[in-house]
Amino acid sequence: MSAAYRTAPPIATLHDTFAQPVSALCFDPVSDSIWAGTETGTVVALHSIQGIRGVSFPVGGGHPVRHISVGNNFVRAYGVAGVGVGSWAKGGMNKWFYQPTASLAAVSNNTYATNVIAASTEDQHVLLLNSMTGAALRQAATSSVVTHLQFSSSALLAASRDGFIRVHDPRSGMRREDGESLIQPHTTGIEDIQTSGNYLFTIGWSMRRGHAFPDPLVKMYDIRNMRPLPPIPFSDGPAFINVLPKQSSSLIITSNQGLVNVVDVSDVANASSFNQLETGSYITSTAVSSNGSYVAFGDASGAIHLLTATEENGDQETELFNGFEGQPAEWADVPEPVPEITWTDETPLNTIGMPYYNELLLSSWTPALATSPCPPPTKIPPQILSTMKTNDNVAYAALPKELRGRRNRVVQTQTREARFRSDKRRNESIDMESLSLDDSAEEVPRLYRKVEIEYSKFGVEDFDFGFYNKTPYSGLETHILNSYTNALVQVLNYSPTVARLGRSHITTNCPREQCLLCELGFVVRMLEDARGTNCQSSNFCRAVGLLAHAQNQLELIDYGGEPNEIDYAHKIQAFHRFLVDHLCLEGNAFPHNPEIVKPSNSPFQSELHSPTQSPAAAPITQLLGVDAKNVVVCTNCKAVREKENMTHVVDMIYPRKPLPNEPIPATDFAGILQSSLVRQLSYKATCQTCKSFATFLSQRSIPTRDLPPVLAVNASVYGEDSLRFWMGGPNGEPAGAWGRARNEGVGRGRRFLEERVEICGHVEGVDDPDTVEYELRGMVVQITAKDKSSHLIAIVKVPDARSESPWYVFNDFVVRNVSEDEALSFPGAWKVPSILYLERVDIRPKLDFSGLPDGLDPSILCQDTNISINRDQSLIQHECLRFEELPTPGTLVAIDAEFVSMQQEEIEYRSDGTNRVLRPARLSLARVSVLREGGVPFIDDHIHTSEAIVDYLTEFSGIRYGDLDPRLSRHTLTPLKVVYKKLRLLVDRGCIFIGHGLSKDFRIINIFVPPEQVIDTVDLYFLRSRQRRLSLRFLAWIMLNIRIQGIEHDSVEDARTALSLFQAYQELEGRGEFDRKLDEIYREGKATGWRPPPVEAVGSGLAGAMTPTTSPQRGGTPHGTPQGSFVGGTGSGAVSGGVVLGRTPGLRALQAQAGFPSAGQQIGHSRVFGSGGFGPGQGGGVFGGGQGMQGSFVAPGQQIPVMGALHGAFAGFNANFGPGGGGVFGNGWGGSEDGGSGRR
Length: 1240
Description:
- The chain is an alpha+beta fold.
- Among the domains are: 19-235, 7 Propeller (Methylamine Dehydrogenase, Chain H); 469-587, no CATH class; 859-1088, Ribonuclease H-like superfamily/Ribonuclease H (Nucleotidyltransferase, domain 5, 2-Layer Sandwich).
- It has 19 helices and 62 strands.
- Strand 6 and strand 7 (75-79) form a beta hairpin.
- Keywords: Cytoplasm, Exonuclease, Hydrolase, Metal-binding, mRNA processing, Nuclease, WD repeat.
């Protein structure tokens, strides 16, 4: 072979019909063949220099083949579409095909360690694949999409779209972070890279005058330190580069126009050979044979041009691509010829026959792929058989009446196991254990599987929580973000000492807007009062998110990700420390902390609690604090120093397997817990005494008597090594497979965790001879399903439980009693402990909680708690209670609340058009109004929130932008915690709440009101047989003859309406007419569509009459609801609260004829709404600070034309809507009441 290349005859046999570009080329290293990729996504084998066509196969995607790599027994290829990369045998049979989740961007043309190839995807990842099986071995993220990959002897080089080449570790795919791992040879993009020995060659694009331009240089780098070397000039613009085999210093550079330059990179100054290909199009691909004797160039017209370095002998048949014959080419199998059949009318059809085969047919499915056999058809009922007739081999019979609608119908199987209270077909006798709550994990018992709330058309209130919990202990709902904390909340709720602190803290005047101890206390009170009714801890979860975000603890926030992507065991233990730290800080009233734990005789504790030296620590610290001294000893000079060490949470440390010459450590629970308390550590540092770099030994020193009343323990089970200590129980492997127990050997069948455990302290390097007993109160456990999704449950010992076993499992809203063995055993890896709470038995009766505050201050109901700086006095509707008005048990109060949306609901839309609610909208309390029995509000608070509001729901809440902002609100604005305390105080004082739809309101507020303290007009005006509940708006119209909620909802108006409905109910019930009236209401509701009918016309023209309407008396004070209606010529609007409501064409016509401003314009400071009536405008009434309006009307029964702009006095009666707060109508007609400076 000479150094110069000559032109050989091209191969033009790639295409039979029309020319297609040759998108990829590769010589076969062991056969006299070349493999070509086409524009349509097909790989074709061309044998010998004559280009005899052989095997062809598609690579998938139908797009051009981008890359081909050929080995001894495989062909690897992938297309431009990036559907996937595959490996085929040379006969065309596919071996494997890897399809990533995102499109492929590049695949390396060489391997690392003989069986690893690299690939990149469009979602900025680098993959390492097994070249033998196609399995993904590693995956690493990149900062840009990788377009070229190349293995060198010690690195993986990745060229990206941003023009950078980054060095990755070939074993892991991770980018190397040292300073020599990043270069940018081309500013716009990289066209190709090649490696040879320690050299890296690159070609690409650069910017010239704002446009991408082919870089006329081949850049060269030393791979060892990524140092640039002198570039190789190529003025025609390099498009392809290839390294010559067996001549590592020679490089072939090719342009799109067919100019080929063979250059020696070690001596660029020497003359190099140039060749110009004879092509009428442009070059699209190149390849070099295994010995460099042939170079192939594919062009856009479908031809393959050849350059050869062999000597010309005139005989093409003897020329070989690789210089040797190699393996014979594999040809496609030729099917056997079909035998000729002479076809006549008598030829039997079975002459064709079945082909002979000695392998299983594709239709012979294995049992794993075969579906279950179809059930046999149902038997024909005997009453049909007895009447059946036959005609022409067809049997028929009339279908009996009793079978109509039942046959030939698909049997509906219940796939959804959720139960709804509105479902009439539900079977009350079915037990929860007979249902599978989650079929994704067969090895997890049903009780422990993840449960989800389903949503019917009636919302979450329709979900039958009672089916999943038949105990007197309440569960917590799961559809709230950060509800993973439910399990820890339940453990703390049933830890009496911690729960006692929470209940006490809510009675204090806590200044913090977000306080976890307050929210924990509110949840504890709610769970305590609910007694088995499901609850939700949305306020606690909201505070968790806000505080974690404020402290940049973003890993504690649940953003609603997939359960199999979250390690909830690690998450809840991190949150446990976060929570305890906050409880300690928020409950600290230093120096006025009460002394809960009396000081012992210990020198450590006695000094800490000495009344002459230091006040008591925070209550949580007194209960959970491990107050020890950390003793540090230098092993070189034996110097000893001590320092105070306070911790609230103990992390368990598991012993490693000892060496043969080491003592065997204790491996039972008590021994591991005690060693975790002492926490022996060793580390290296410079000793301040001997001034040498020495090893230090550190351990805690704490006497037994100073161990805390409550031990909060993080189990720290993060792997199989630590989990095997817990594995054991009645059906599991023995706990402690090696090692010893403190008192006796742990054998098969013995649990690792016991209900009670004895531990001792550690003083002066030895165990304290005294021991104390701790009792397990509860624990948080992670449950991991078969699909690796996990969730948390609580297993607690309920104090004073009236059941066979005191142990209960709280799986969110599923609560069930279990045995002690089931509660404390860990039979498999699906059940992993996370947090444990243990209570010291001997000190429990000695705790003194008498110094803690107990009971809310009732004066909060008498105080103005406004925090708005721009409150409008004219908008104040409530009068705070006087001290003598404080409610007593049985006091009737009316209540209504309005809410805003903090998060939109998440809905899954299916392909069949149906949808499913994944998570409902998260609502937050925005306004609450509580009225005296006489109808006068004493609470009318808007609720301050610092969260972003996604929807004010103004149509239903009446809340607008700025109403909840202390700087902008014109209303009485109060913190949520203060409002909660007011409501909590009303519940505790035995008030009876009257309202409409209160169960949902109380759920969202996070307060439980005993059923005997609730009178809900939804239930009063309800016929169970009709399965229809009536709206407040409809009841107000049909029972009270008033129209409410015309434009917006108003909580004062709604609460007052509910109070009037209750009074009407009492009146009708007293006369024995309520049942008859309720039937009439339902009949009328069905006729009107369960809503007030539109106002009907009663006349024509502009004449009309003022007609009074009567309703039950409500209060007789200026706060009473005005009654009456204005009936116009073509419409009417109800007068309520000084507001003319309704969408009335009559009033629109009246406005037009009278010369009033058009709809939507301002009259004084009141507003005429576009619907045609007088709306509440800015202040909620027909009032204003301007001129107001006057008009002339006539008495009932008379008609006169309306003149001019209706200026003047009323004819039938005089009314002046003055410039003040606006006049209001009184009850009935003939009364006179003042309203601001207006009058009637």
